[in-house]
Amino acid sequence: MQLYLIRHPQPVLDQHTCYGRSDIAVAPEVQQQCLEQLLTQLPRDVPVFSSPLRRCAGLAQQLAVRLEQAGAVLERDLQEMDFGSWELRRWDDIPWAEVEAWNQDLLHHAPGGGETLPAMARRIWQALERLRARTIPAAIVVCHAGSIRMLHACAQWRAEQGDMLAPQQQAYEDIALRAMAQRRQIGFGEVIRLSLPAMSTPAA
């Protein structure tokens, strides 16, 4: 299975603001420019899936129309990480002690009381497995930088372990660590390809 992972267009928000699960809009002209650029890079006749947040779903629905699909399938588990009380606060306004507490325990501390990285890994894993279960050759997925890194980490773990093993809590921590180790910046509107092995079917 071939995934075309797309990070959403740049939202209408100061880059110094913390945002994850917050539903931020994209300026219409920015979304249109991103759409036109993507249409030159994507195949036709491929279904479109998306995080339900507006900065993803708006682009995904437009892509689905232009690619002659019935519409984008919204997948809530593809959302970005939940930063709890940090959401929509400037990074400079978040107490350093809170940031440092997360830095000291990246796996188990929930920033702003929101979501831990292994919890995010679990739901991204579930979203990816639902995609694989559709047994389609390819899919376009519009989501977030954090979600894209986590999807890559999930795919790496699955490639190593095979279909016979389901992840437990330790595995989600391993997946989260893999995602954190990915330092490459992902641009707004960038397309990243991810190849997945086909889902095994039980022997008759």
- Number of helical stretches of at least 4 residues: 6
Calculate the terminal CA-CA distance, rounded to whole Å: 23 Å
Radius of gyration of CA atoms, rounded to a whole number: 17 Å
**Principal-axis shape:** flat
Return the average pLDDT rounded to an integer. 93
Helix content range: 25-40%
* Element-level helix/strand string: EHEHEHHEHHE
Quaternary assembly: single chain
Largest sheet: 5 strands, mixed
Approximately how much beta-strand content do the residues carry? 5-15%
Low-confidence stretches: none
Task: Describe, in plain words, how this protein is organized in 3D.
- The longest helix is centred in the middle third of the chain and has 17 residues.
- 35% of the residues are buried.
- It is built from six helices and five strands.
- Helix 2 links the parallel strand 2 and strand 3.
- It is of the alpha/beta class and 204 residues long.
- It is 39% helix and 11% strand.
- The mean pLDDT is 93.
- Helix 5 crosses helix 6.
- A five-stranded mixed beta sheet has the order 3-2-4-1-5, sandwiched between helices.
Feature tags:
single chain; 204 residues; alpha/beta; 5-stranded mixed β-sheet; 39% helix; 11% strand
Give a quick summary of the entry.
With 204 residues, the protein is of the alpha/beta class. Helices cover 39% and strands 11% of the residues. The two termini are 23 Å apart.
Strand-helix topology:
Elements (H helix, E strand, L loop, with lengths): L1 E6 L20 H12 L8 E3 L3 H13 L6 E2 L21 H9 L12 H17 L4 E6 L1 H17 L7 H12 L10 E5 L9
Parallel strand pairs: 1-4, 2-3, 2-4
Antiparallel strand pairs: 1-5
Helix pairs in contact: 1-2, 4-5, 4-6, 5-6
